[in-house]
Specification:
By secondary structure, the protein is mostly helical. It has helices spanning about 10-15, 45-55, 60-70, 70-85, 105-120; strands at about 35, 60, 90. The chain has a 3-stranded antiparallel sheet with strand order 2-1-3.
Length: about 120
């Protein structure tokens, strides 16, 4: 069974990123919200156009990668290009003053989630 994104031709992914394997920015994680700052322009890469169209409303990086059917790392490289060009803005979701965006839930919460998943 072929899995979209995972079993894609490596040449395609290499071409999308111009041969880069890491983004130029560390501004992205799975839940970083991305918002378009402009409309797509003539001659843009089709994935960049799709990202700008998709991000008219705040959209998480993981959603962008899933919609484009590309690995998360490839998505962050494309997003980094758009960020450096000033075509998008990024922000981390506000989780309130008690917990910073990168905090880890306590072990009790994680255990409850695990039990819930096992019960499915």
């Amino acid at each position: 069974m072929k899995r979209p994104g995972r079993d894609d031709d490596p040449d395609r992914l290499y071409t999308l990123t111009g041969g880069r394997s890491k983004p130029d920015s560390d501004a992205f994680d799975l839940v970083t919200l991305v918002v378009s700052e402009c409309a797509p322009t003539q001659g843009m890469q089709s994935e960049h156009v799709a990202i700008l169209d998709m991000c008219r409303a705040p959209t998480a990086v993981v959603e962008i990668a899933a919609e484009l059917r590309i690995p998360f790392g490839i998505a962050t490289i494309l997003l980094s290009d758009l960020l450096h060009a000033g075509k998008i803005t990024v922000r981390h979701p506000d989780v309130g003053p008690a917990a910073p965006w990168n905090s880890v839930p306590d072990s009790t919460t994680l255990e409850k989630v695990l039990v819930g998943l096992r019960n499915l």
